[in-house]
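Progress note, sequence design subtask.
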């Protein structure tokens, strides 16, 4: 996507997006001038910045999940932050650490895999997602801290998850008369279903849909599929043509069609749509 079409699309939907995301009004207006006629252009420039940082991240993958993952030092150290204007103001602990000698690598600050930008708003989040989609990057869901240990325990009950080592036992298991790869995969998916059911706030808070729902809808309509393993759920590009055609207008229309913008009132419609994509 070239800058001209990128900017034009964003300016066209800016006012409507602001209307549909009143909960994020303060984010949209952060450091904006009093002249409202300039807001659409400034927002488009901000989105263009995060779009380019996203598509060029050094690991070729992006992480999805709760805002709290940016407070997990081990995740930041291993995957780095994805930022154009600097890390989010909601993580003050990062300031001292990122500017210390122990974090000299600028890639950890800006070209990593965890979105953390102090100018964040929903459209910047969309731009970040499209940057990864246009380059067919994998997206990995971070679930540590959200009922994660129970999920790990359930996965450890599976036959292949023993101290022998998953790779060795998998080789043996595939040749064993009682082994069924399809049954094994079904149990893995069943465990993930249970995890989602036990942790409904991954999708919705009392006030409405979480940002992950917004991201999942984008991945769904732009050619991505989920892949469940005993260790994680990731989303990979299954249809490169759909990914190449991903646009802000198509994304905005899909969010409206599914009912994302209608908040709690369309919760069941949104959840049913995502359930069919994830598990059917």
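Output:
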């Amino acid at each position: 996507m070239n800058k001209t079409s990128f900017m034009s699309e964003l300016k066209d939907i800016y006012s409507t997006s602001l209307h549909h995301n009143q909960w994020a009004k303060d984010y949209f207006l952060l450091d904006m001038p009093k002249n409202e006629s300039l807001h659409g252009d400034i927002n488009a420039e901000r989105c263009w910045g995060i779009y380019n940082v996203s598509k060029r991240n050094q690991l070729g993958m992006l992480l999805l999940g709760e805002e709290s993952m940016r407070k997990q030092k081990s995740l930041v150290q291993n995957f780095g932050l994805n930022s154009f204007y600097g890390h989010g103001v909601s993580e003050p602990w990062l300031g001292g650490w990122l500017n210390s000698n122990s974090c000299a690598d600028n890639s950890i600050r800006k070209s990593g895999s965890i979105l953390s930008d102090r100018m964040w708003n929903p459209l910047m989040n969309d731009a970040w997602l499209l940057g990864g989609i246009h380059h067919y990057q994998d997206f990995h869901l971070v679930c540590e801290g959200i009922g994660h240990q129970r999920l790990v325990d359930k996965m450890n009950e599976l036959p292949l998850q023993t101290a022998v080592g998953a790779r060795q036992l998998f080789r043996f298991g595939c040749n064993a008369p009682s082994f069924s790869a399809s049954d094994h995969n079904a149990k893995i998916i069943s465990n993930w279903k249970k995890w989602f059911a036990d942790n409904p706030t991954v999708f919705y808070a009392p006030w409405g849909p979480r940002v992950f729902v917004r991201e999942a809808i984008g991945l769904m309509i732009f050619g991505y599929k989920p892949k469940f393993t005993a260790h994680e759920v990731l989303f990979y590009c299954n249809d490169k043509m759909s990914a190449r055609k991903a646009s802000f207008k198509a994304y905005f229309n899909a969010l409206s069609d599914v009912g994302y913008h209608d908040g709690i009132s369309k919760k069941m419609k949104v959840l049913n749509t995502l359930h069919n994509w994830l598990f059917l």
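The chain has one domain: 3-146+199-279. Work on this subtask will continue into the next period as scheduled.
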